[in-house]
Design brief:
By secondary structure, this protein is of the alpha/beta class. It has a 6-stranded parallel sheet with strand order 1-11-8-7-5-6. A 3-stranded parallel sheet has the order 3-2-4, with helices on both faces. Strands 9-10 form a two-stranded antiparallel ribbon. Helix 7 packs across helix 8 and helix 7 packs across helix 11. The radius of gyration is 19 Å and the shape is globular. Bound molecules: NADP nicotinamide-adenine-dinucleotide phosphate. NADP nicotinamide-adenine-dinucleotide phosphate binds next to helix 11.
Length: 287
């Protein structure tokens, strides 16, 4: 039986710790951190993510402002709004919920958010800093994954890690963080030849593809640590499921994360942590 890392439990614990920390801020700094989330349109998935971020902020004691804009908003207007928030000294973190309507360039939006307020860690300067091992805001999902591994007592150093997926928001940055923890990292993708042979070599397997139950038991070696980032609908049951066939893989794994209740809650938890970090960087500079 695998050890199941509950992201739900760990994030609840970490949020309690952050709540205690934030409670000391009004006296020390005169206010609490302020996160502004911009939601464009009414995509149900995005609405639910934004609601989750507002709820977590409430738990931690962070001020959260959600700005809702119709999907007809022009790119110029959205960029103008971000500029205003950049200049607003009472705003510590800015997040624009992705995806955006096609007429708006996500790259331009991400690059317009001030690096110091980029709580998602997506700004090109933050990404560059991550790859150059400089001080930066770490992207939330990869950061949450490393926290889960550490909390479960998984030794990363010297391990063979395989990451399936090479997106800018998950696959690539999680590979970099594993490398920084001294794992030997292989990045697999849709053109990887003989993927099962590659994944069976993994002592730590991180899966970020976006395909329900894609990773089957024959792709996993006995005793592997399996981190499932995927968020999908099971085509048979319509329920939320990961990229890993949990029922089949769990008996072979030594450690595994469930979906839901695994990486997802940790991502939001790390967003809270990043907001606090951005706030403290600013406040400590001003002191
Ligand atoms: P993405 O940008 O679509 O990237 C998917 C990656 O999977 C690509 O690199 C792609 O390879 C690879 N891939 C696709 N089919 C494959 C196959 N048959 N074999 C091997 N590799 C394959 O997705 P993403 O943004 O990284 O997200 C991945 C999943 O994680 C999604 O389900 C998403 O919803 C979820 N997610 C969860 C969280 C969370 O907090 N839990 C956060 C972010 C994302 P190529 O590069 O060759 O195309």
């Amino acid at each position: 039986m695998a050890t199941v890392i509950s992201g739900k439990e760990l994030s609840a614990q970490l949020k309690e710790e952050m709540k205690a920390q934030v409670a000391t801020f009004p006296e020390k700094y005169g206010r609490v951190p302020h996160l502004v989330v911009i939601l464009v349109g009414e995509d149900p998935g995005s609405v639910s993510y934004v609601t989750g971020k507002a709820k977590a902020s409430e738990v931690v004691g962070i001020k959260n402002t959600t700005i809702r804009k119709p999907d007809t908003i022009s790119e110029a207007e959205l960029l103008g709004l971000i500029e205003e928030l950049n200049a607003d000294d009472t705003v510590d973190g800015i997040l624009v919920q992705l995806p955006l309507p096609k007429h708006i360039s996500e790259d331009k939006v991400i690059a317009t958010i001030a690096k110091e307020k980029d709580v998602d860690g997506f700004h090109p300067l933050n990404v560059a800093a991550l790859w150059q091992k400089q001080d930066c805001v770490l992207p939330c999902t990869p950061k949450g994954i490393i926290k889960m591994l550490k909390r479960a007592g998984v030794e990363i150093k010297g391990k063979r890690a395989v990451v399936i997926g090479r997106s800018n928001i998950v696959g690539l940055p999680v590979s970099k963080l594993l490398l920084d923890e001294n794992a030997t990292v292989t990045i697999a993708h849709s053109r990887t030849a003989d993927l099962p042979t590659v994944t069976r070599n993994a002592e730590i397997l991180v899966v970020a593809i976006g395909r329900p139950k894609f990773v089957t038991a024959d792709m996993v070696s006995e005793g592997a640590v399996v981190i499932d980032v995927g968020v999908n609908r099971d085509p048979e049951t319509g329920k939320l499921c990961g990229d890993v066939d949990y029922a089949a893989v769990e008996p072979k794994a030594s450690v595994i994360t469930p979906v839901p209740g695994g990486v997802g809650p940790m991502t939001i938890c790390c967003l809270m942590e990043n907001t606090i970090e951005c706030f403290l960087r600013k406040m400590d500079k001003q002191l």
